[in-house]
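dude i think i finally got it to work??
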Amino acid sequence: MSCSERFRGGEEKEYEHQVLRRSVDVESNLLSQNGSITTPQLTIDDNLLVDPKVLFIGSKIGEGAHGKVYEGRYGDRIVAVKVLHRGNNSDERASLENRFAREVNMMSRVKHENLVKFIGACKDPLMVIVTELLPGMSLRKYLVSIRPHKLDLHVAIKYAIDIARAMECLHANGIIHRDLKPDNLLLTANQKSVKLADFGLAREETVTEMMTAETGTYRWMAPELYSTVTLRQGEKKHYNNKVDVYSFGIVLWELLTNRMPFEGMSNLQAAYAAAFKQERPSLPEDISPDLAFIIQSCWVEDPNLRPTFDQIVRMLNSFLFTFSPSPPLSLPDSDSNGAEASNGTNTSMTDLSVRTRGKFAFIRHLFAAKRTKNSQ
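look at this
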């Protein structure tokens, strides 16, 4: 029986009612009892601002819930220009301006080859974020364009490593992304690497608050971000950066299968199935046991059992090393010392692979114990 068949109408309606009721709430830590803004507005350092007089906006290349993205030019540089919505009333404008300032401040302080490069921001006359323009398409569009074919396994793992490294950088800087999905990942022009592009829903880990339904996208959201119990006004729902690890597990599954997670379900059905039925997308029968373990450890229900992105990068690199045979060495026969040194290097790499596998044995053990407990 499919997930959607097990999802009964009564349960769905009740869950949908609760989720939609929360979706219209403004983040609880911004409101007082009378609905006025209580937290001080965030500010943007002047050295992060660009000169609007030399910023030109061209054709639209994308659109999301919180703004539109255009191709543009800043001075003599071709850039991407994200124009954010201002809001329709004073409270909404204050909240969106806070979000804008938060996104700018976070983007400006993290730099990594797998993060889209931040160039600057503009507060007036529009709220604008200027970044490098990648000529490639989003990972979502690319995957859709090649269906029903799947990515080459080597390419899929390389993309996954790029994403994990970007997330490792964010977490090292105390940032939770909260909206990791293929739509927010951009391919470079040669399609050899991936960059994380959107920080619109990111938060500092020290100030995480109740998650409203607008945060993230249900198919990729960790189960702990929503509940059947409606939280009281002002009550906070705590979580940590392991919500991003869950989302990464779903993205990795997509890279390997090139299918939509929770196919045949609505967004709310997918959320209900993941959170309250402990359902996950089905793994391909021919998947490598090592990759299956990485995916399953990322989306295990208990966040404490999920690996860190540092561990994920090492596991994926270990798999890539065993998957890709080393190129043959062309050394002169007379160079015995060089050959011995080369053999020593290969042995060292093999030992590293063995050590890496051993390092994650404890995660396998914990995950197996969790699955056994759930099946009882």
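The first strand starts at residue 55 and ends at 63.
im so relieved honestly
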